[in-house]
Design goal:
single chain, mainly alpha
């Protein structure tokens, strides 16, 4: 199979699952907005955010190493060595970090949620390691199936623990943990990961090889956390938990775009890692980069066009001001996505240090801008700092890729035209006119179809062939 076809096939399979899952997440947003007040939702969001900060510390960021080394594993014996050694290390890391977190939480106002928090934290780690194993063994369909069940499970368990049992923040944590464990079980059994786990296969001498790759990813992961989540902490301190709940709800629309981006990123890393030594590698990367940039912009246009209507008619009125920040956050998705694309190239070169340096630098910029502006413009400071730091991250990675590997990337005319169109859709979100927003949704649909016409048509042809072949 050609590398372009392989990339397209894997990306489409994973995107289908993501759209199903995250599409469902948008549908359940109105329920969550009614079951929890902005303050309650803000407190949960902060707690979950800190769990994501601690995850790379407890796992030594080995999930990326598991994926990268499994791709090149020569046989089942090597797969077993990678999986068993990694899981043993992660178990040790969770035990240490878990004890520390328990002690810290016991001495704070969050002591009443410490048990639920640790259950959620453990479930998040299990899900993270399991899905990276599934990806590393190239079981794309299973990854999609496992991921797509997350939101239905989440709705079910949150309904039980929050709506019915009225457990509040504890209920949200337990509900999320239950959903993650169910999805992990699907991936664990479907991939037969249990066959790759053996005490005899653990080689602590091999752990050095894994850690050499993963340790530089820890500051990278923490920096991504700063870029993605530190805003919540600053908002919680300077503006309050209620404002944080509104900002978290505003982030839901951009999160949908980001998840679609992440899904492609997984396929891209696998694809470019396999073809990093091809003779026409540079031309291939440039071609995919511009096609990818145009597609991401079209998706952002589509998502942005519906955000005002979504907040106006489907989300509880307590969160209505969230629609003011969503367009700026959606714009940051483009810079984040293209930065991740280049990051995938660095991963293919096994250059985790380069990714770490650029992300740390951008994270520092994010904090500086946010702290400088939060007292002046409130929640807008979080959105503006996120946009600016991702833009800087993109420029820095493009520069480093050209300087270190002599691969020069630049946007083509189509991407430039789409960027101008996107500016209009962002501006339009601040105009209170239902007819205008309805017209914009139709225009956005046209843009998405025109930009992705060849992709849509080729996907339809592939689906028809698959159906005919099954017959």
């Amino acid at each position: 199979m050609r590398r372009e076809d392989s990339l397209k096939r894997n990306a489409i399979i994973m995107e289908i699952g993501t759209i199903l899952s995250k599409g469902f997440s948008i549908l359940i947003m109105p329920f969550f907005s009614r079951w929890l007040s902005p303050e309650e939702y803000g407190n949960f969001d902060v707690v979950a955010t800190y769990a994501s900060l601690c995850l790379p510390l407890a796992t030594f960021a080995l999930s990326e190493a598991i994926f990268r080394f499994l791709i090149e594993a020569k046989d089942a014996k090597e797969e077993k060595k990678i999986a068993s050694t990694s899981c043993a290390m992660v178990l040790c890391g969770f035990t240490v970090v878990g004890v520390v977190l328990y002690i810290l939480l016991s001495s704070t106002s969050l002591s009443d949620i410490r048990y639920a928090f640790l259950v959620y934290f453990f479930a998040d780690i299990v899900n993270n390691i399991t899905l990276y194993y599934v990806r590393g063994t190239k079981k794309t369909v299973l990854y999609t199936v496992s991921s797509s069940f997350n939101m239905p499970f989440l709705f079910l368990f949150v309904f039980i623990f929050v709506k019915k049992l009225e457990l509040g923040c504890n209920g949200m944590l337990i509900g999320y943990a239950s959903a993650l464990l169910c999805c992990s079980l699907i991936g664990f059994v479907g991939s037969k990961m249990y066959q790759s786990l053996s005490i005899k296969a653990i080689e602590f001498s091999y752990a050095k090889t894994l850690l050499k790759y993963s340790i530089p990813m820890i500051p990278n992961s923490i920096s991504w956390w700063i870029l993605n989540a530190s805003d919540r902490s600053i908002i919680n301190i300077f503006v309050g938990a209620s404002a944080n709940g509104i900002y978290a709800m505003a982030y839901k629309i951009p999160t949908f775009c980001t998840t679609l981006v992440n899904t492609f990123h997984y396929s891209w890393v696998e694809n470019i890692s396999t073809h990093i030594n091809d003779s026409d590698r540079d031309q291939y990367i440039r071609k995919v980069f511009n096609n990818y940039a145009s597609t991401i912009l079209s998706i952002c246009i589509g998502i942005t066009s519906v955000s005002y209507l979504l907040f106006r008619f489907f989300i509880d009125d307590a969160y209505i001001t969230a629609c003011l920040y969503a367009p700026i956050l959606a714009a940051s998705v483009f810079f984040s996505a293209t930065s991740m694309f280049i990051g995938g190239v660095f991963v293919a070169f096994k250059d985790s240090k380069e990714n770490g340096f650029s992300t740390v630098f951008s994270a520092v910029i994010n904090i500086i801008i946010h702290l400088s502006l939060v007292s002046l413009i409130g929640l807008y400071a979080a959105a503006v700092s996120t946009l600016a730091s991702y833009a800087i991250l993109l420029v820095l990675r493009m520069y480093r890729l050209r300087k270190k590997y002599h691969i020069a990337l630049k946007f083509d005319r189509r991407t430039g035209m789409l960027a101008l169109a996107y500016c209009y859709f962002i501006f339009a979100q601040y105009i209170i006119s239902i007819p205008l927003h309805l017209i914009n949704v139709m225009l956005a649909c046209i843009v998405v179809l025109l930009v992705n016409k060849s992709l849509v048509l080729s996907t339809i042809r592939d689906l028809k062939k698959a159906i005919i072949n099954k017959r």
